[in-house]
Amino acid sequence: MLDYSAGAIYHEVRRRRDLRIKEVKGDLHQSTISHLEHDQSDMTLRTMVKILRPTFMSAEEFCRLIDNGSETSTAIFKQIAHYYDSTDLAGLYDLLASYKEQNILTTPNKMVILMIQSCIDELSQHETLFSKEDCDFVQDYLLRPGRWFSFEYIVFANLAFSMPAKINLRISKKMFHAYQQFHLPSYDELIVNALYNLSISFLEQDDPSSAIQFLSFLDLKKLDHHVLYMRHHVTFLKLIIQFKLNPLDVKNANELRTFLEATKLIDDVLFEKNIDWIRSLKINPKTILK
């Protein structure tokens, strides 16, 4: 039977990588590592991160192993994305019901519930804007003093569709300030997602000027090259905004047509989603694909 204690896992990794205690201990006493590996003492997280470095195991991987491979708290975001991308309303309703049943109503959990509800409202074509009470709850949380971490960017990116422009503008100012004051490299992709969703939100409210303003802040260089899905979406959005602003621009129209034709060759499902969204903007796709 596998031992998922911190000491046992660290011992296994250290031995697997042919590392002696003196090669990982740094300025610690050798007995400190020995006591950890025999589960005779605990260790601060800061010290644990320090002795993990020589093993080339990340703190994230180590914590997942200690947690016996159970789902991380952020796994719910992948579940929401899966049901939303596959337009599975029944799956989202089941997810909402089970999440409410299995979790106490803390502030983070309420944010997750609102994210699921936002997806349901959009897919079922109900009123997509939150009530004043829910909008106040979200903006009070996101505007409070303090740093933003990954959760705050994820919340804003996913709830921007369900809040009015005035509130989104207010929160976006806070987001920019928080990002400039402090961010980890992993936040780059999160702020790109937020800016992309804000652009869509303004475009769907028939405000292409604000949409393109948010896109101008969006730096694709912040995305890893493997994140092609988001790169596709951003390029598509830029072309659509230009087409909406000036449908007589032949060069842009040709680029948009070429882009859609290439998308159809690569992924029929994604092509159909693009076409459906074009129709939702009251644009006849035939005027582009002619």
UniProtKB/TrEMBL annotation:
Q: Which InterPro entries match?
A: Cro/C1-type_HTH (IPR001387), HTH-type_regulator_Rgg (IPR053163), Transcription_activator_Rgg_C (IPR010057)
Entry superkingdom: Bacteria
Give start and end of each HTH-type transcriptional regulator Rgg C-terminal domain. 106-267
Any Pfam family the entry gives = Rgg_C
Which PANTHER family does the entry link to?
TRANSCRIPTIONAL REGULATOR-RELATED
Q: Which NCBIfam families match?
A: RGG_Cterm
Q: What is this protein called?
A: Transcriptional regulator, xre family
Q: Which organism is it from?
A: Lacticaseibacillus paracasei (strain ATCC 334 / BCRC 17002 / CCUG 31169 / CIP 107868 / KCTC 3260 / NRRL B-441) (Lactobacillus paracasei)
